[in-house]
Write a structure and sequence with these properties.
This protein has 281 residues and is mostly beta strands. It contains no helices and 19 strands. The chain starts with 13 loop residues before the first strand and ends with a strand. It has a 4-stranded antiparallel sheet with strand order 2-3-4-5, with no helix packed on it. Strand 18 and strand 19 form a beta hairpin.
C-alpha cells in the first residue's frame, strides 16, 4: 500500500480499481478497506467455444449484476451475466485497438478505438494519418443489441481537430448529458507534441468545445487516460504521463492536482465518493 496523507472531508478516498490496490486515503476518518475480502474467481468469464479473451481495458457493471467488457480481440464487446456466462457480444472487425468505454443514462455503450500506439514501419504510409484499413481514432455509440448509433471522429484518421481525435482513450457522460472524451494516448502513432485534451460533444454528437492542451501545467495534459465524476459534479482526470490526477469544477476550471498515484490509468467513483484508482505502470 502506498503512503497515505490526510485530505479535506469533501475529498474522495482512494482505493484500487478492479481488485488491484494502488492507493488508499481515508474519507471522513474511515480506515482503508480490508483487501482480504477480494478473491480470484477461476475460469471467469466462461467463454463459449472458439472465443478467446485478450487484454480488457474497460469493464462496466450494470444494475442487473451483469458486466460489460471491452477487450482487444474479436468480439470486442462482451456482456457477462452474474454466473460468468457470456450472454452477448458484438463489434467484430470494427476496432484496431479497443480503448475506453462508458455507458450513458439511456444504457447506450460508447466504445473507443485509440488506434495503433506506434508509428508505421519504414516504407509504409505515415504522412497523415490514414492506416489500419480505415479503423482507429474513433468512438462508437452502440445500443445494447449492438446496433451502431453514432461514430465520433473519422475512422483511420489521427489528427487534431473538432471532428477528429489523435488517439482517444476514455469517455464519460457529463451531468447535462454531453459526452466528454479524453484524447491523447501516449505512446501514439503520430505527433506527441499536440492533441492531448478533453473533447466535449452534445448528445447528438455535435462538437461543443475542447479543454486543455499538451503540457504539464494545471489544465494541461499528457496522456489523459480515464475520467470520473464525484457527487459534487467535479470531473477527475487521470493525467497519466504527468503522474497525477487533475480535478475540474462544474465549469471545467482546474481546481486541484494530486500527485501521489504513480501513473494513474483507471478511475471510478462510487456513490459515497470513494474514488478507485488503478496504477498500471
Amino acid at each position: 500500500m502506498k503512503s497515505q496523507r490526510s485530505l479535506q472531508p469533501s475529498t474522495a478516498g482512494l482505493i484500487a480499481l478492479m481488485a488491484v490496490v494502488s492507493a488508499a486515503v481515508a474519507l471522513r476518518g474511515r480506515a482503508a478497506p480490508d483487501n482480504s475480502v477480494y478473491r480470484k474467481v477461476p475460469n471467469w468469464p466462461q467463454l463459449p467455444e472458439g472465443m478467446k479473451l485478450g487484454p480488457v481495458p474497460n469493464m462496466i457493471p450494470d444494475a442487473q449484476g451483469n458486466v460489460w467488457m471491452l477487450q482487444r480481440l474479436d468480439p470486442p464487446i462482451i456482456k457477462v451475466d452474474r454466473s460468468g456466462k457470456v450472454i452477448k457480444s458484438f463489434g467484430e472487425g470494427m476496432f484496431a485497438h479497443s480503448h475506453g468505454m462508458c455507458m450513458d443514462r439511456d444504457g447506450n455503450l460508447w466504445a473507443g478505438d485509440s488506434g495503433p500506439s506506434f508509428p508505421p514501419q519504414a516504407g509504409s504510409e505515415s504522412s497523415g494519418r490514414r492506416r489500419e484499413n480505415g479503423r482507429g481514432y474513433v468512438f462508437y455509440k452502440f445500443n445494447q443489441d449492438g446496433k451502431l448509433l453514432m461514430t465520433l471522429g473519422k475512422a483511420g484518421v489521427s489528427n487534431v481537430g473538432p471532428d477528429t481525435f489523435v488517439a482517444p482513450t476514455a469517455c464519460i457522460e457529463a451531468p447535462n448529458g454531453d459526452i466528454i472524451i479524453a484524447d491523447g494516448h501516449i505512446p501514439r502513432a503520430f505527433n506527441e507534441t499536440e492533441g492531448d485534451r478533453l473533447m466535449r460533444f452534445s448528445r447528438q454528437g455535435i462538437f461543443v468545445t475542447a479543454y486543455g492542451r499538451t503540457g504539464k501545467g494545471l489544465g494541461e495534459f499528457r496522456g489523459p487516460h480515464a475520467l470520473a465524476y464525484d457527487s459534487q459534479g467535479r470531473l477527475f482526470v487521470a493525467d497519466r504521463q504527468n503522474s497525477r490526477l487533475q480535478v475540474f469544477d462544474r465549469s471545467m476550471k482546474p481546481v486541484a492536482e494530486w500527485r501521489q498515484f504513480g501513473r494513474p490509468s483507471g478511475l471510478f467513483i462510487l456513490p459515497d465518493n470513494t474514488l478507485l484508482t488503478l496504477d498500471s505502470e
